[in-house]
Specification:
The mean pLDDT is about 90. The longest helix has about 35 residues. By secondary structure, this protein is an all-alpha fold. The chain has two domains: about 130 residues, no CATH class; about 25 residues. Helices cover about 75% and strands about 0% of the residues.
């Protein structure tokens, strides 16, 4: 999926959500005597929202597995997967007060960091690789389009042969 102007609303919504979440977190962290905690009401809110974002991002695989269900447009699911998945990481960090906690939490956060980073790399590759391929491999074609390209080449060859005969 190409990240273009059609992503503008998702981008603006994600930035606005991050700004609001950050402002609420800073106010909460400054007022909390014991420091930010995941078990507080606001910490649980961040955890619930982050979990909801991750759940939505994860449901894309299920949506792809059953395309016959037609639950929303595929483009909307892909954009939600990208932008809500991107927003989930800072929200989950705010949930835990930017601490990784005990052993299980640490392991899960490192796994989350790995998945998050691989998602960013995947989005970048998905954005830049098609353009790179078409610029470096201009004569390559998609398998399904071979018949169309062959017919086009036959037409061009026939025209060249006719031009040679007429000359």
């Amino acid at each position: 999926m190409l990240i273009d102007r059609t992503h503008r609303r998702w981008f603006i919504g994600s930035v606005a959500g991050l700004v609001i979440a950050s402002a609420v977190y800073v106010a909460y962290a400054l007022r909390s005597a014991a420091g930010p905690r995941g078990s507080s009401a606001i910490g649980l809110m961040y955890g619930s929202v982050g979990f909801a974002f991750m759940l939505f991002a994860g449901l894309l695989g299920l949506r792809k597995k059953f395309p016959i269900w037609r639950i929303g447009r595929a483009q909307t699911w892909m954009r939600g997967h990208l932008w809500l998945g991107l927003l989930s990481f800072p929200v989950i960090l705010m949930h835990g007060g930017f601490h990784f906690g005990g052993t299980l939490t640490r392991v899960l956060m490192w796994l989350f960091i790995f998945v998050y980073a691989s998602g960013i790399v995947g989005a970048a590759l998905q954005h830049f690789m098609p353009r790179l391929h078409t610029s470096r491999l201009p004569m390559e074609t998609i398998y399904e389009q071979i018949d169309h390209v062959r017919q086009q080449l036959v037409g061009e060859a026939t025209k060249i042969v006719e031009d040679v005969r007429c000359a």
